[in-house]
Specification:
116 residues, alpha+beta, five-stranded mixed sheet
Length: 116
């Protein structure tokens, strides 16, 4: 129910590329991560505010909201954590890759690191 509330709020507000990751087997601090992008810092903030409003309507109080204002806002809801990011931040941090367990580096990054 919590995850669907978050995803619906993000979809209703036109978030980009909403991904839901089950991380219950690899971490103990949350079960689900929802990652979504906004087209601008303003939309990122609006998406985070929309998630907070939607869960409060369900009687759920967020544990915390971090990163406001920013290109990456985290909404901690306990069993679920929403990462709402500007596309450039999302591409840089690659949370989907990190939380999927794929920690391999692209070949060009390995070569770049070796030069320094």
């Amino acid at each position: 129910m919590l995850t669907s509330t978050i995803v619906t709020a993000l979809d209703d507000m036109k978030a980009i590329d909403v991904q839901v990751l089950d991380v219950s087997e690899i971490t103990s601090f949350t079960d689900t991560m929802i990652i979504a992008s906004g087209r601008s810092d303003v939309q990122v903030k609006a998406l985070a505010n929309g998630v907070v409003a939607a869960v409060k309507e369900q009687g759920i109080q967020p544990i915390g909201v971090e990163g406001v204002p920013s290109e990456w806002i985290l909404v901690d809801l306990g069993d679920a954590v929403a990462h709402i990011m500007h596309p450039t931040a999302r591409a840089y941090y690659q949370l989907e890759k990190l939380w999927s367990g794929d920690l391999s580096m692209p070949e060009d990054s390995i070569q770049e690191s070796a030069r320094h």
